[in-house]
Amino acid sequence: MLIKDTLTQSLAAIGTQRLRAGLIILAMSIGIASVSVLTALGDSARRYVVNEFEALGTNLVIVLPGRTETTGGQPPLFGETPRDLTLDDAQALFRSRHIAAIAPLTIGSAPVSSLGLERETNVVGSTHALRRVRRLTVAQGSFLPETEADKALPVCVIGQTIRNELFAKQAALGQWLRINDRRFRVIGVLASEGQSVGIDFDEIVIIPVASAQALFDTYSLFRILVETKSKPDMYKAADEIRAIVKARHEGEDDVTLITQDSVVSTFDKILTALTLTVAGIAGISLSVAGVLVMNVMLVSVTQRTAEIGLLKALGATKRQLLWLFLSEAAMLSLAGAVLGVMLGYITLGVLQALYPDFPLQLPPWALLAALAVALMTGLLFGVLPARKAAKLDPVAALAKR
């Protein structure tokens, strides 16, 4: 029996039992579609989160006040607390030759108003370096001027939402914006940035860091963003930053350093594991489809006993009969896989239309893996029926016993 004859015979057998074949293809397609969609969702979530953190800047080190780890035992009687980060701490970090730019941050919430219109929004105090470190784009005007960090200036840069709601009918540049009891002149409008790691840059007002400290009556910094000169410099700079701050804080190692690489790598590992776990759970449906393939093929062997006996009487070997039933199972599995991939792409298209801001894409490896798993499932669960058919005695089979 030639390969062509085997394939022709398998197709003929599938055509004679269309309902049976349709059920197998449907079960397999549902399994493949589930695996495809869930894998795409998990992988897209991973890429989205990683891209969000990479959009924070390049070669970024974030300095936060306080240590992340805790120790056991009773709290100290006199309440030792970590020192606040100050502008002097931020300026001292320039002692490291690995640092390219430093952007200190002070953040608070305050009402902003102009021409009788008012809204509550986030106010960020920083320096001219924030534009470089956070890769911000100015649509109109200019960003904060390059001056000493401790110099308070009554100027601000606003986001697109603030411009649209407070200056909808006139140009925003040159207008006065009141924040609490202080006035700031608008010198720039940011391009639409959207959400970035929980911060909506369209709804913020950026003022000089010294002005923000006076506005919120504080001398501490929320955090310090440090851009290093290169990727290898990140870890060298982190060690030097810790040493500089420790020296300034009387030997207390009371800051937490977060490198951009470590955050991206951590989230990448977590979401990759989550994607594989979800895909594995969805893959259980493929096992169910495989059991259906096996059961239906066993019924097929019983119904085609006379045909098998005739083939063996004409000289078909056990190996040829084995390949005959395995090829039939493989064809059904591949047909289900192709239909499942189509259903998966249709589902992803619908989800993309409903949520256009969330990029959905099925990775190529997942597509190839789904097809391979479907084929292997069909062959694996088709072995038992094929072996049963190959072992039939030709005389007993022709007598349908």
TrEMBL record:
Keyword Membrane: yes
Matches recorded under InterPro entries: ABC3_permease_C, MacB_PCD, Macrolide_Exporter_MacB
Residue intervals of the MacB-like periplasmic core domain: 22-244
Alphabetized UniProt keyword annotations: Cell membrane, Membrane, Transmembrane, Transmembrane helix
ABC3 transporter permease C-terminal domain mapped to chain residues: 281-394
Main location as per UniProt: membrane
Compartments reported by the entry: Cell membrane
Membrane protein topology class: Multi-pass membrane protein
Residues annotated as transmembrane: 21-41, 270-300, 321-345, 365-384
Pfam family, one: MacB_PCD
Similarity comment text for this entry: Belongs to the ABC-4 integral membrane protein family.
Protein name: FtsX-like permease family protein
Species, as recorded: Candidatus Methylobacter oryzae
